[in-house]
Amino acid sequence: MLGHHYTHTFVETAVASVNAGCNLEVSYGLRNNVFMHIPQALAMGNITLQMLRDRVRPLFYTRMRLGEFDPSAMNPYSSLDLSVVQSPEHRNLSLEAAVKSFVLLKNVRGMLPLRARDLSGQRLAVVGPFADNPRVLFGDYAPVPEPQYIYTPRRGLEMLGANVSFTAGCSQPRCQRYSQAELVRVVGAADVVLICLGTGIDLETEARDRSDLSLPGHQLELLQDAVQ
C-alpha cells in the first residue's frame, strides 16, 4: 500500500492492513517491514489488542492443523531421510504429472503423439532457445535444480534413440542475435521439427511484466523460417 501511495508511512500501513483483516505480510529479508510497526500502532490506540488476537488466531490455528507443534514422533515426515529424494517413485510421479499437464491445442493429421517405435527411421530437428537450455526451463520461485535430473526436449528425444539434430537459433529467450542460416540448414534436413519458444524469467517475473504478448526478439522470425 505504501508503494502505491495509498498510505504514507509504515505505521499507517500497519493500521490500515490490520483494520482490513490482513494477518500476514510477505516480507522475508526486509529489515524495514510493516508488521514491526504494529506495536507502535497499538500504543497510539489505532488498533486494539483484541483485534491483534483476532488476526493472529487463524494463523496459529492453521499451524496447529499442519502439526507444527506436534511431537516429532507424531510427524510422519520425521522418519524420512535423503534416500527418498529423487527416488524412482517420486521421479515416476513427476513424469506422470508432466505428461498429464500437456495442453494440445491442435493435432493436424493425428501427428501426435510421436511414438518411440516410429522414431528410429526419422530425422528430428529440435530448435529454439528452450530446446536445450536447462536454466530457462524453470519459472519464478523454483528451487535450485540438479543438472542430472533436468531433461530438456533435446535430451529427452535423444534418450529415445532418435536421430536428433539441434540448433538454438538464438541462445537466450531475448533472441537478439539469430543464426538464420544454421536454423535453415538443420530444419531443412529433418523429417520432423520441434520448435521450442517462449519467454522465461529473463523476460517476466513477479513485478516485471511484458508490455505485450509478442514473441521476444527474433523468435517469431525463427518460427516463420522453420515453418517455411
From TrEMBL:
Keywords attached to this entry: Glycosidase, Hydrolase
Pfam families registered for this protein in UniProt: Glyco_hydro_3_C (PF01915)
GO molecular function: alpha-L-arabinofuranosidase activity; xylan 1,4-beta-xylosidase activity
Domain of life: Eukaryota
One Gene Ontology term from the biological process aspect of the record: xylan catabolic process
Annotated ranges, domain Glycoside hydrolase family 3 C-terminal: 103-226
Hydrolase keyword on record: yes
SUPFAM superfamilies, alphabetized: (Trans)glycosidases, Beta-D-glucan exohydrolase, C-terminal domain
Full protein name: XYL2 arabinofuranosidase
